[in-house]
Amino acid sequence: MKKLFLLFMVLGITPALAESKAVFDPTGLWLTQNKRAVIAIKSCGDALCGNIHWIIEGGMQSDTKNPEESLRGQPICGLQIVQGLTQTRSDSNNYEGGHIYKADEGDIYNASLKMKAQDVLTVRGYIGVSLFGKSQKWTRVSAKDYPKCKAR
Sorting pLDDT into bands at 50, 70 and 90, what band is 129? Predict the structure, then answer.
């Protein structure tokens, strides 16, 4: 009887162990945590990149603090602020090795993305090692609710 019970326990646990972890798609439109911009994340070759898709009314209109002087004054609308993120081998919902540009400060940080659910993205910007950084939660949104901005 004990052997039969043990067999049922093993059979009951085995399917749970065999279940694969859900893999989420990071491409799409993402509202930043402060709700001032929407970033369009897409595939750029073998990596992910992201451009400003929508910006709050009255928000920054031009990139005045870019560390590269020749790029100062370019429109914020459409500006690429995320680049070079590649999927990690250990977890299909994690992306690392990229950069994120914080236009209001003119700073470029190392970046990583983690997806915990299909509509929630954690973005981390950091200097050197991830321990020295800050995370934000971005939420997936619809283009009908956040129409594409127009460069001025």
Answer: confident
